[in-house]
């Protein structure tokens, strides 16, 4: 049973049955119970769970050294980690759909170093140690490791979009991927978390180009995991920003219902808990 509580041009609020609302069903979830809400999108990034030693070949300093060698045109050394690069455009990660699957499914558009270099060759974006940001590392088995990088290609223009489109890739809004993800699939949720972390980190790099203390140019340190002012008299260090936010779900346990809302800009099938900058805003909407 659905109760329309209010409606404006920008938002609507609904009371929905937790077990009987078909639109809210996530792939492979036949019912929506309170257990569903124990999953957290964009959390539990699997490639940030380990902290490598500086001497490990997949650590930020070692990976940066390997990256510099590749940029100079040197061949990939046998024991160097494999590189995978995820491009973002206007905050959207590159993604592709899974072929041969009837389910709405997707995968991130990880590119090899060579492919990324080829794609960006005729664009306005330089593939360099100043544009690639270290995201994390993971084991590939048999002692082999992969290092993940992110890059913002927003300035590359539509030519790159068309070229990647011919390879069945496109840049997709994170919330769209979230809706298309099977929340019971740990691997898919892990990919979603990696993409969320990468977007946050790249956005921080975009808005922190200059020092807030002296106006000097900030440069990447530790493969992009932090930055430092290039002014010798300042040298202010800055770290990725963490923005605390609050979101809450109003549950009517007795009647097996929850209160959700949606905005007109949301993609189809997307509903949200009541969210606000402060809890007071949520109380006002109630
Ligand atoms: Zn400074």
Automatic annotation (TrEMBL):
Entry-linked Pfam families: NUDIX-like
Entries under InterPro entries matching the protein: NAD-cap_RNA_hydrolase_NudC (IPR050241), NADH_PPase-like_N (IPR015375), NUDIX_hydrolase-like_dom_sf (IPR015797)
Cofactor field: Mg(2+)
Residue ranges annotated for the NADH pyrophosphatase-like N-terminal domain, each copy included: 114-204
Cellular component terms per the entry's GO annotation: cytosol; peroxisome
MF terms (GO), sorted A to Z: NADH pyrophosphatase activity
Record carries keyword Hydrolase: yes
Record flagged with keyword Hydrolase: yes
Entry protein name: NADH pyrophosphatase-like N-terminal domain-containing protein
Organism: Solanum bulbocastanum
């Amino acid at each position: 049973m659905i109760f329309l509580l209010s409606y404006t041009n920008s938002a609507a609020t609904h009371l929905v049955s937790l077990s009987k609302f078909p639109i809210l069903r996530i792939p492979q979830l036949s019912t929506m119970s309170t257990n569903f809400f124990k999953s957290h999108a964009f959390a539990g990034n699997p490639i940030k769970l380990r902290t490598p030693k500086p001497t490990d070949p997949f650590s930020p300093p070692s990976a940066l050294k390997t990256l510099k060698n590749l940029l100079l045109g040197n061949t990939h050394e046998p024991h160097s980690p494999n590189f995978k690069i995820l491009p973002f455009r206007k905050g959207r990660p590159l993604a592709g759909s899974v072929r041969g699957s009837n389910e709405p499914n997707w995968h991130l558009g990880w590119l090899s170093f060579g492919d990324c270099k080829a794609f960006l060759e005729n664009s306005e974006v330089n593939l360099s140690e100043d544009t690639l940001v270290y995201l994390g590392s993971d084991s590939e088995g048999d002692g082999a490791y992969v290092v993940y990088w992110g890059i913002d290609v927003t300035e590359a223009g539509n030519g790159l979009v068309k070229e990647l489109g011919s390879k069945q890739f496109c840049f997709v809004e994170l919330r769209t991927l979230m809706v298309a993800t099977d929340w019971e699939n740990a691997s898919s949720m892990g990919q979603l978390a990696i993409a969320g972390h990468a977007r946050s980190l790249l956005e921080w790099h975009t808005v922190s180009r200059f020092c807030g203390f002296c106006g000097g140019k900030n440069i990447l340190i530790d493969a992009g995991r932090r930055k430092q002012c290039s002014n010798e008299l300042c040298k202010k260090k800055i770290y990725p920003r963490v923005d605390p936010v609050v979101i809450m779900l109003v549950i009517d346990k007795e009647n097996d219902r929850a209160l959700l809302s949606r905005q007109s800009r949301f993609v189809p099938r997307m509903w949200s808990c009541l969210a606000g900058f402060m809890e007071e805003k949520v109380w006002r909407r109630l």
